[in-house]
Amino acid sequence: MERKNAWLSYDAAQKEKLNELCERYKTFITRGKTERECVDQAVEAAEKAGYISLEKARKKGKKLKAGDKVYDTIMGKSMVLFTIGTAPISEGMNILGAHIDSPRLDLKQNPLYEDTDFVLLDTHYYGGIKKYQWVTIPLAIHGVVAKKDGSAVKVVIGEDPDDPVLCITDLLIHLSADQMKKSGATVIEGEDLNLLIGSEVVEKKDEDEKKPKKGEKKDPKGNVKDNILKILKDKYDIEEEDFLSAELEVVPAGPARDLGLDRSMILGYGHDDRICAFTSLEAMLNVKKPEKTAVCLLVDKEEIGSVGATGMHSRFFENAVAEVMDLCGQYSELELRRALRNAKMLSSDVSAAYDPNYAGVNERKNTAYFGRGLVFNKYTGSRGKSGSNDCSAEYFAEVRRIMDDAGVFWQTAELGRVDQGGGGTIAYIAGNYGMNVVDAGIAVLSMHAPCEAASKADIYEAVKGYEAFLKA
């Protein structure tokens, strides 16, 4: 059952649409290297498409009807969009769910220190990474610093062509005899992922310092940290203590780029899972007045277990559905339970693409390939399907029909050989409501690396597939 390659089907007009879509996507992941930045872009696009905030609709006492569009956010890091359908919400919703967090390094709360005329920042890695991949590459800092007066300072360092970049150093090969004996998991330790941010020594002002006597030579004292603190204060109005209430993420610097001489792929940071978030949002914005209420859910914290107020385990989504039903005049606790149980969802998350350099980790009949379209994982999990959602045969048959009727290129896959490893998504959490859920995403090479690769054809097919699902 080998699936056909989508590139063979495109005419010139389709390739033009494909390239326009992928240019927008490159902008999205270049500008959206944090959850907050992704939500900001999604809100901007949603409001341009006619969505209004749920809070504003509630305050105005607006009664929602079929075709109305609303969105809600929480802490600026997760978002849900609704296009109200003609059928009662209790009859079910069609939901696309993706996550917008990606593996990275976070600054510790007390990160700044000086050591031997260097100033560095302590980090704590977020999500599953190969730590050795993060050394000696250009890095940027994105995030927000919340100050005691209630204001917040947005920070982006390392993206503008005139900006400096930052880096984590590595041991030179000439002195690496002991280091090279270590396993890949420990060749770089977590506590060694310290970000180098300065080295200029400036004279330290010491009011208690005695003035040199006449003819006596002054021995100036200097340090680097004071200079860095001055730069932070002058440019960002940030004091050292403000790091205590900051969310600052260390990410690869630079834009997403076309990959390959034929420009058929995109190389960039954060494909997992912003590639599915972007395509889900694109599909959602194309839906006008569906029969079933259409939903696009973009959540945080998947890479660390979907925990916390902005993760899928929170009540954010459930509460938003309740608010929407109330504004539609359809709310009761029982009707809410029915709406969640009757819902159908594509858990939009990336899948591992076949890589000929590492063919041994895959079983070739059940792996995802570049250019063959949207990837469905009937189950994920690891080693004996642990942590898996495992959708029903009946639901997957329905999804097959929707994709085929819409002319979408699609394929099926598992996350590698049975005993090799695996992974999870938000599918099982939504499945706890009793709804039908299956994973449907885009194949990615080098997943969780600072730069990942994806096929432009698969991005194009994902939008088609997601849109067909929302309209079904």
On the 0 to 100 scale, the average pLDDT is 94
What's the CATH architecture name of the largest domain? 3-Layer(aba) Sandwich
| Number of β-strand runs | 24
Q: Give a short account of the largest sheet.
A: 9 strands, mixed
Count every helix, treating DSSP H or I runs of 4 or more residues as helices: 10
Helix content: 25-40%
Number of domains: 2
Strand content: 15-25%
What sort of overall outline do the alpha carbons produce when their principal axes are compared?
Answer: globular
Could you say which structural class the secondary elements and strand pairing correspond to?
alpha+beta
Explain what this protein looks like in three dimensions:
With 472 residues, the protein is α+β, with helices and mostly antiparallel strands. It folds into two domains: 6-102 and 269-471, Zn peptidases (Aminopeptidase); 105-252, Roll (Aminopeptidase i, Domain 2). It contains ten helices and 24 strands. The chain has helices spanning 12-31, 35-48, 54-59, 225-236, 271-285, 316-327, 333-341, 393-405, 427-431, 456-471; strands spanning 52-53, 69-74, 78-83, 93-99, 104-115, 118-126, 139-146, 152-157, 195-198, 202-203, 222-223, 246-252, 257-259, 265-268, 293-299, 344-347, 351-352, 374-377, 381-382, 410-412, 422-423, 436-441, 443-445, 452-455. Helix 1 (12-31) crosses helix 10 (456-471) and helix 5 (271-285) packs across helix 10. It is globular and about 90 Å long.
